[in-house]
Sequence to fold (512 residues):
Amino acid sequence: MKKRNFVVSLMALLLIAALGACAGGKSSEDKSSAGDQPTYGGSVVVGVQQDIDSLDPHKAKAAGTKEILFNIFEGLLKTDVNGKLTCAVAKDYSVSEDGLTYTFTLRDGVKFHNGNLVTAEDVKYSLERASGLLDGTALVSSLATLESVTVIDEHTVQVKTGSANLELIYSFTTAIIPKGSGEAEGSDPIGTGPFSYVSYKPQEGLVLKKNADYWQEGLPYLDEVKFKIINSADTALMELKGHSIDLYSYLTDSQAEELKNDYQILAAPSDVVQALFFNNAAAPFDNILVRQAVCYALDKDRANDFVTGGNSRIISSAMLPTLKDYYVDLNDTYGTGANIEKAKELLTQAGYADGLEFTIDVPSNYEAHVQTAEVVAEQLKDAGINAKINLIEWNSWLSDVYADRKYQATVCGITSDMTPSYLLVRFQTDSSKNFINFASKEYDETYQKASASLKMDEKTELYKQAQKILVDDAASAFIQVPPITIAMNKDLGGYQFYPIYVQDMSTVYFKK
Fold:
């Protein structure tokens, strides 16, 4: 019975994820409409807020890198605009009844950017490299459970995993690269996506050109896309006003208002969880009472109104409300407005009756995070807390805050994919992504039970329990899920929002 329950749960998830996904190779949406006819050709400049951390798709970690590489690389599967899985390099797949074997049938005629056809050997190499089967180092942690990748024939690959996992199917969006390309991908990336690599200059940008052999009929429209790295909000605003860039995302409410007459302003919910993250291993945030006091002192409603014009979704834990089956509303724990009396009471208990000081390190290239930090710092004064804002460059934030964990607090965002585990796995005590140094035996045990569960209702409940632990322990002060607000050249059309952090330029075109 246990096996049968698992099969029902797994297949239900897969059917929901991939409903209608693997039929055909044509563009799934007709972009044309009256007065908005697409044309082929042209070049656009897309402003991005951070430099890339690696051109190698299996080693890239930063969300800002992945949004660009989405145009170069594809996996066996990919996510569509509705958050469902669609076939890419694969044209079909099946999962065994015990959930341990995945069989992928490759799409005919898919070519790498070097002109070579994708083979089953390329798929085997890519998955073995990403999972660690090749050399013992898993570059994509979610694939570390793979036990073998076998070529059945020239069009079929079979993957065996050591344990059944309801969320593993999403990991097959991992990029397929040519067999043996390995470390060369870091300097000369070759994928199967709608655009191919031309050049990259650190701190300047990346140039891509149209993949004329792209398997998806009719795409892309543009001949060239230039991703330009813009490290400050002031520079971005200046370039937008000078029309030297065609598209820029993550505008604040004030920026959008200033640009609305010259650009199309488009908005949608994001996959970013923004928070005042605490270093739980550094004073004063190694004290739970201090962390809780700060949570009580925050007025999230005010931050939402000031930064995004009230368009954010207020949250209290690391889960996207759009993942509604797993999300639990815990805003009542500390409230969405400030409770200064409670904050002062906790600070007194913690030994800070006379107040405390700490520094908030903020990546200067993200204006939304800078503005949020400014609002937070101002609010905390009412509770006797002096928060100093330290603006740092993105690369410094990656090295000092994220990697080396040498900080007290930071305002930033963490992004998600379509699995609830993606946001929660990082808070395990020994996770390499646990940059807040959160340590909780209860959390670790709860997360591990959730990860191993083969029953959807049990898994869902355990993920909710994990969220509650994060909130009760005030692991960080989770604030909001901001919208994605973009400015786009009025001559352009076809832009599509995804529930994950990507800039899909394949559907963008110049209007007739």
Observations:
- The chain has 13 helices and 22 strands.
